[in-house]
Amino acid sequence: MASIEQLTDRIAQAVATADPLPHVVKIDLKGAGFIHIDGSQVTNQDAPADLVVTVSLDDLVALGRRRLDPAMALMRRRLRMSDMALAMSMQSRIQALFAQAA
User: What is the rounded CA–CA span in Å between residue 30 and residue 32?
Assistant: First the structure.
């Protein structure tokens, strides 16, 4: 199992090699910490964001490895989005970040 520091490093590497996200995203790991993505900066701060994705550390890894279906995770409330319309517009970019984190 990857630690939050390892996941943060992997996401930072992915963000550094791709176009910056068009919106600020925070991943709330349900008590395990936060990953805050603002342009090309990735930190573990609990700072404001346009989109907050709430998911457990284990489920984030499962989503990235495609062992957990995002639609099923949403229906079972294992994955929550603060702004579903914004999340849908960024779906492929978010899935790519999850894959990098896994």
Answer: 6
Q: Which domains does the chain have, with CATH numbers?
A: 4-101 (3.30.1050.10)
Q: What is the pTM of this model?
A: 0.91
What one-character-per-residue DSSP string does 15-74 give?
HHTSPPPSS-EEEE-TTS-EEEEETTEEE------SEEEEE-HHHHHHHHTTSS-HHHHH
pLDDT string in tens for the chain (102-residue length): 678 899 899 999 988 888 888 999 999 999 999 999 999 899 999 999 999 999 999 999 899 889 999 999 999 999 999 999 999 999 888 888 788 777
Sequence length of the chain is 102
Q: What SS3 state is found at 101?
A: helix
N- to C-terminal Cα distance for the chain? Answer: 9
